[in-house]
Amino acid sequence: MEDISKTGEQVAHESAVCPNVCREPLEERPLSDQMRLDEVTKRARTTAHDFNNALGVILGRVQLALEEAKDPFLTKQLKTVERTVIDIAGKVREFQIFLAGTASSDHKSVTVVKSVEKPSDVI
Hints:
Oligomer: single chain
Distance between the termini: 60 Å
Shape: elongated
Structural class: mainly alpha
Strand content: under 5%
Helix content: 55-70%
Number of strands: 0
């Protein structure tokens, strides 16, 4: 709703200074380059985090299956999947490190002190 208490001179001045921007609702205003970069970075971080979680589930299931596998062919195939998931997880980690330096973050890095020797140690 427009402020009717303004004088004609005030309205004319505001229209000259910010012709359309001041009248657009905030959500319709174009994003600045920095805001756009921050939003893309935030979404990339979220996607990398979710992807990393999915890789962890896949890796855990493959390692549990490896403990139970009796067939040499199946064991070889599971080890191939395990290596691939570990390689991809490394790439995701590199991407997360890159993203950590691109914009402000509410996230903190966590260092895992003790690694798990085998999946059944977690259960």
